[in-house]
Write a structure and sequence with these properties.
- The chain has about 260 residues and is mainly β.
- The chain folds into 2 domains: about 45-135, Immunoglobulin-like, CATH 2.60.40.2340; about 140-230, Immunoglobulin-like (Sandwich).
- It has 1 helix and 21 strands.
- It has one helix spanning about 1-15; strands at about 45-50, 60, 65, 70-75, 85-90, 95, 100, 105-110, 115-120, 125-135, 140-145, 160, 160-165, 165-170, 180, 185, 190-195, 195-200, 205, 210-215, 225-230.
Length: about 260
C-alpha cells in the first residue's frame, strides 16, 4: 500500500514539472513570432501643396491618391522646382532619396515625378510616386489687329483696328475693296480660325463685307470669339470740282476768282 502511494506521488511530481505549453505554441505561452507585434503601416494618407508654404500658389492644391500614385495639378506657369508638400503618413519616416521629409517644410523639385519612400516601424517600406502637372494656359486674346498696306494692294496706308473687349473695329478709305483683305494680328492663343479655316497673320484673306468672327483657342482648349467689323469711310471728295467765278458772268467782279 505504501509503495502505491509513493508511486502516485512520483507521477504527480513529474506532471507538475512538465512544460507549460499551449497547443502549437512555445514554452510559457511566448509569441512564436516576437516581431509580429511591430507596426507594418507605411502609407501616405493625405497630400497637398498649401499656399502658406508655397509663394507660387494662390490656392491650396489637394492631390489625388490612387494606390501608390499621387497626382496634383498646379496652375499654368507655376514654378515647380521648389514646392513644399504637406502630407500625412502612417509610417515612422518618409524620405525622398536620402533626404528626410518634414511635412510642410521640405522643398522638392517636381519637374519630374518624385518618389517618396515611407518606412514602417518594422522596417518595411512603401514607395509613392508624386506627379505634378502644370495646367495648360487659358490665354486666348487678340492683342493687336491691322491691315498692312504691304499686304493689301487696295490700301495706300496701314489701317490699325481698335480692340475693345472682344470687338475689333477698323475703318478703311472710301472705295476700298474689302472682299479680300489680309489681316495682321497678334494672339496669346495657340490657334485662330475663321469658320473652319486656320488664320495665318499676314497671309490669310477674308471677306469683310460683313462682320467676321475670329475664334481664338487657348492651350487648355478654351475659346474666345472676336468680332471684326470693317467700315468703309464715306466719300469726302467734292464731286463738283473747284468753284470758279468769272467776271464775264459776274458784272460785280473786277477780277476772275478761281
Amino acid at each position: 500500500m505504501r509503495s502505491s502511494v509513493v508511486l502516485w506521488l512520483l507521477i504527480a511530481v513529474v506532471i507538475g514539472c512538465g512544460d507549460n505549453r499551449i497547443p502549437g505554441g512555445t514554452p510559457d505561452g511566448a509569441n512564436p513570432n516576437p516581431d509580429s507585434t511591430l507596426g507594418t503601416a507605411a502609407e501616405i494618407t493625405a497630400y497637398s501643396f498649401r499656399t502658406a508654404n508655397n509663394a507660387e500658389l494662390t490656392n491650396d492644391i489637394n492631390a489625388t491618391i490612387s494606390g501608390n500614385s499621387i497626382s496634383a495639378t498646379v496652375p499654368f506657369d507655376t514654378d515647380v522646382t521648389a514646392l513644399v508638400a504637406t502630407f500625412t503618413s502612417t509610417g515612422e519616416s518618409v524620405k525622398v532619396g536620402a533626404t528626410d521629409q518634414a511635412s510642410g517644410t521640405t522643398a522638392n523639385d517636381f519637374t519630374n515625378p518624385v518618389g517618396y519612400t515611407v518606412t514602417a516601424v518594422d522596417g518595411s517600406t512603401e514607395t509613392y510616386t508624386v506627379t505634378v502637372i502644370v495646367a495648360a494656359s487659358n490665354a486666348k486674346a487678340i492683342t493687336a489687329f491691322s491691315f498692312e498696306d504691304d499686304d493689301n494692294g487696295a490700301l495706300t496706308a496701314t489701317v490699325t483696328g481698335a480692340i475693345s473687349g472682344t470687338a475689333i473695329a477698323a475703318t478703311v478709305p472710301f472705295g476700298t475693296d474689302v472682299t479680300d483683305l489680309i489681316a495682321t494680328f497678334e494672339t496669346t492663343g495657340v490657334s485662330v480660325k475663321v469658320g473652319g479655316v486656320t488664320q495665318v497673320s499676314g497671309i490669310t484673306e477674308n471677306d469683310f463685307t460683313l462682320e467676321v468672327d475670329y475664334v481664338v483657342t487657348a492651350a487648355d482648349n478654351s475659346t474666345d470669339t472676336y468680332t471684326v467689323e470693317v467700315t468703309i469711310a464715306v466719300n469726302t471728295a467734292n464731286d463738283l470740282g473747284p468753284l470758279q467765278f468769272f467776271t464775264v458772268n459776274n458784272p460785280d467782279l473786277t477780277v476772275d476768282v478761281t
